[in-house]
Amino acid sequence: MMKNEIIEISNISKVFRTDFYKKPFSALENVTFSVARGQITGFLGANGAGKTTLIKIIMKFIAANSGHIAYHLRGDSWREICLSIGYLPERPYFHPHLTGREFLEYMGRLNEMKMSAIVEQVKNLSVRLRIDHALDRKIKSYSKGMLQRLGMTACLLHDPEFLILDEPLSGLDPLGRKEFKNILIEERARGKSIFFSSHIVPDVEEVCQQVIFLEKGGVLYQGAIDELIVQNLKPNFWFVLNDFDETSIVDMQQKFALMNLSHKEKLTSFEVLPDQKEHCLKYILDKNYSLHAFGQVRPRLEEIFYKIKEEHF
Amino acid sequence: MKLLIVARYTFLEIYKSRILLNVFLLSIGLALVSALASALAYGIPSRVSLDLGMGLSSLSSIGIAIFLGVGLIQKEIEARSIHLILSHSISRISYLFGKILGMLGILFVNVLMLSAVTLGMYLFLGGVFSSMILWSFLFTFCESILVLLLVVMFSLVANQVLAVLFTIGIYACGYGLEGIKDALFVRLRPAFMYALTLFEHVIPNFYKLNVKDYLLYEHKLPLGYLTHALFYFLMYAVLLSVANAWIFSRKNLD
Ligand SMILES: Nc1ncnc2c1ncn2[C@@H]1O[C@H](COP(=O)(O)OP(=O)(O)OP(=O)(O)O)[C@@H](O)[C@H]1O
Ligand SMILES: [Mg+2]
């Protein structure tokens, strides 16, 4: 039976000893979480939270001091596991003297692909990732964004079932970010599980179903983004009024606690507490103010994280 | 075999970095210089050019082995390009020896080109062919293999500068051992002699692999000596390979 988790991380701790006379630095402490199969999981955390360190441990580049990782991928041997993982490093930097095409062929052959399959995949992917024009140039002439695109191509080349991406959106222009996000969504639709780190909350909110929030080497939250938002929904109501004059505002402020009051050209917007919403709406209608729009406030993931963080520390 | 894939692309990469172009220019330079030297210097012209050619091939392969070898793995670790490679389905050991094999390919081409030029000049200047010349080139190649394995090993445990210094140090010691043992100072002190013999079992005796002098003075070496030296080389190559594999498979690659 296929498990719902594609990878399970249990109690991983990692201590770095930089110099023997310095105090050992604990980068990860008892990190436990799992990544859901068939979904996009965002791995959020500030700079230095330990995201890259954990990904390196998952990929076995460095050893953890304690803990265990279970991979529920095709095959049991590490060789087979690698065949079903596509990995994009944090700082994509490849062999400068090879051309992009040679490099991709190299990667494909390491993953036991046939030359004909490599050629076919490179043709399709490079167009999709808009790197096809540069494939016959040496990698050392690539810009940062181009390296990122080449790295992503290499990552998808062997059609792995699980993508592990360390900050895939960094170094890309706004259009590129959009394209990469679409690719993540498309790849999920094709049945892949995706785990990617980022410190940009709106990006994660946009494409992910699941989120893991790492802070100073520990997991603060893990689970579905929707649940997190529902749990933290403070259903304030917002109103936008047209041509709302100064005296009416003062009038209204005496009756209701108006929050986040702001003006933009002819529009005035504010929020009221949930228990005042009917009352407030009735008041506006009675007074014949020109109501432009109203609705329930949906908090942004970012604010929720600030809140969780405050509660935690 | 994945090892061969790594070797192939390592060779391709170093080749494309134009190092072999330098070797090519070097061999042309060598041809010119040896032509010039044999005309000007005392001694039999063919011999002078042979001496020069062999010296230069040995020097250039040791040089290439050390200065490209020190970055062979280390540079990939520092640039972290190693992460992407190892995320593919290849074992660390295959990767390590693939890199080394690719580099050996470069060294081989280097020795081959310089040898061909040297031999060509030698025969052109009227030298008589001897199989010892080929042995000498073979040993030049063997020597550079040991140096490469040494410098890779040191680069895995120390920084690049130290790795280069250690390797040059060991190379120099390995060469000097034979000479020191002959010194009167040492011969009179058995303890010293004993220490040196012990030392000799740890440090490869590069002198054993140098048959150039025999060749130049037309001493024939018995085949037994040559095969013994070859075995000696193989033993060290295997030993150093095992050490490299042991270190690399345990190394933290962050
Ligand atoms: N090799 C190392 N030696 C010592 N400390 C290290 C080492 N690698 C990472 N660290 C420390 O571990 C902590 C976590 O680093 P890590 O690179 O995992 O952060 P990150 O979450 O990926 O941050 P960013 O968003 O900036 O990429 C940092 O404080 C870093 O200084
Ligand atoms: Mg990072």
Structural commentary:
The complex is a heterodimer of chains A (313) and B (254). By secondary structure, chain A is of the alpha/beta class. Chain A is 36% helix and 28% strand. Chain A has 11 helices and 13 strands. Chain A has a 6-stranded mixed beta sheet, with helices on both faces. In chain A, strand 1 and strand 2 (25-36) form a beta hairpin. In chain A, helix 3 packs across helix 4 (115-128). The two termini of chain A are 41 Å apart. Chain B is mainly α. In chain B, helix 3 (45-72) crosses helix 8. The longest helix of chain B is centred in the middle third of the chain and has 33 residues, at 92-124. Chain B is globular. Classes of the chains: A alpha/beta (313), B mainly alpha (254). At the A-B interface, helix 2 and helix 3 of A face helix 1 and helix 5 of B. The complex binds adenosine-5'-triphosphate (ATP) and magnesium ion. Residues 51-52, 90, 166 of chain A line the site of magnesium ion (MG).
Keywords:
heterodimer, A: 313 residues, alpha/beta, 6-stranded mixed beta sheet, 4-stranded antiparallel beta sheet, 36% helix, B: 254 residues, mainly alpha, 12 helices, globular, binds adenosine-5'-triphosphate, binds magnesium ion
Number of helices of chain B: 12
Whole-number mean pLDDT of chain A: 88
Measured on Cα atoms, how large is the radius of gyration of chain A? 25 Å
Report strand % of chain A: 25-35%
Number of strands of chain A: 13
Q: What percentage of the residues of chain B does DSSP assign to strands (E)?
A: under 5%
Task: Summarize the helix and strand pattern of chain B as letters.
Answer: HHHHHHHHHHHH
Query: Which sequence of strands runs across the widest sheet of chain A?
Result: 5-6-7-3-8-9
Regarding quaternary structure, what we see is heterodimer
